[in-house]
């Protein structure tokens, strides 16, 4: 028996173990839900993992699971802008305007350039009759909106003009 034989056996053993791990990991990448569940389990203190898992749950109609993941996100990172914005949307849909305003405010504090949070808080403030505050956030939305929001920006500009006309009456 050659002195190299044990080294070959050890090499083959490691090759098999690492190959099995690679195959298992590749299975996680096959499906986004499985991928983010895996991230949340393997990195339980990762706000991003929980936020993304919540987003996948929302996209697949599992709202209660989505809410739990977003709540976990803000537990780990209280000013995580996107998670607070998502929780604000949930509150808005439930008609809980004060909670929606609270969440959107935290989202904006976490990222003052979060155009979506500015837009969402503006809509909510306007529903509450707080038009002047809404106008401020509509303007912040326009300033911070990315190129993909141009159609919405144009609608918001038109809406701001109509609010100005109403105020002048």
Description:
The chain has 169 residues and is mainly α. Helices cover 80% and strands 0% of the residues. The chain has nine helices and no strands. The protein has helices at 5-28, 32-42, 47-59, 63-76, 81-93, 97-110, 115-127, 131-144, 150-168. Helix 3 runs antiparallel to helix 4, helix 5 (81-93) runs antiparallel to helix 6 and helix 5 packs parallel to helix 7. The longest helix has 24 residues, at 5-28. It is elongated. The model has no long low-confidence stretch (mean pLDDT 90).
Provide the fold topology.
Elements: H1 5-28, H2 32-42, H3 47-59, H4 63-76, H5 81-93, H6 97-110, H7 115-127, H8 131-144, H9 150-168
Helix pairs in contact: 2-3, 3-4, 4-5, 5-6, 5-7, 6-7, 7-8, 8-9
